[in-house]
Amino acid sequence: MPTHTLHSVLLRSGSRGKIFRLLFGLLCIELCCIQRVDAEQPVVFGAVVVQLEGANGEVGNEIVSALNVVLRKELRFVQKVCQPSPEQLNDIRQAGMVEIQEISKLFAREPEFSVKWPDGRKQLCDALAKKIDAILPEQAAGRYRDELASREKAKQDAVVAMMVSIIDGKVGLTPQQAEQVDAAIRNSWQTEWSQSVAIFQYPRYAPLPDVKTIAKILTPHQLQVFKQTPNHGRLFLGWQAELGVQGWANGLEIDEVDD
């Protein structure tokens, strides 16, 4: 077993603290807009009310309320960085309201804790981006696209770091192995791995790459240990976590964060 594990290297280099500050920030903010919005320029947007039939209708209405919060924050960000006219902003808002209805219906159709639940926040942002592309100048629309891409990259970086940390905890990786595992995970990336970042609070239930992905990187002993260490499969923390509207523990949605 290697004596210099990733844990010890990160601890010595100070990188570990940076990683976990990043993870905590992602779990609390969950991809809210990271640009500060001036409090003296409030913007009031409409809300979506959807009456859903069936056993999950009540949950569906809660989802609508949560997504309304996400929509308001996204529109504030769009207003600040894309500078649409009031008419254009209203058109973008209307597109978001329509998409919220569709997302809530998808959640309501599926049983609780379903693997078919959509990534509601991403779906809403993609709908806004599509509308923004259609009605705003290319440069302004590109700023929102760049923001969405930056969010996805930051989330992927955090998830990959957590996966490497979990594997390191199981088998004890050398620094070189850690870099190779990091690259292997990125090369075999699956978007559902990052849908619920909060799941990594529970390593035994967190998604991990297939053993074939890292088999050639590990020693025979490490590979045997990895195969024998239980992983209980996907754990669902509720629709709030799946939507990305739940913080680390208290479900708070942070409205404004200084750069």
Give an account of the 3D structure.
The longest helix has 34 residues, at 138-171. This protein is mostly helical. It has a domain at 42-152. Helices cover 59% and strands 0% of the residues. The chain has helices at 6-13, 15-29, 57-82, 86-109, 120-135, 138-171, 175-187, 211-214, 220-228, 239-243. It is elongated and about 65 Å long. It starts with 5 loop residues before the first helix and ends in a 16-residue tail after the last helix.
- C-alpha end-to-end distance: 42 Å
Biggest β-sheet, characterized? none
Radius of gyration: 20 Å
Tell me the strand percentage band.
under 5%
Strand runs, count: 0
Q: Give the overall form.
A: elongated
Whole-number mean pLDDT: 75
What is the count of DSSP helices, taking H or I runs of 4+ residues?
A: 10
Helix share bin:
55-70%
> How would you classify the helix and strand content by structural class?
mainly alpha
Order of helices and strands: HHHHHHHHHH
List low-confidence stretches: 1-16, 27-59, 247-259
Offer a quick outline of the entry.
The protein is 59% helix and 0% strand.
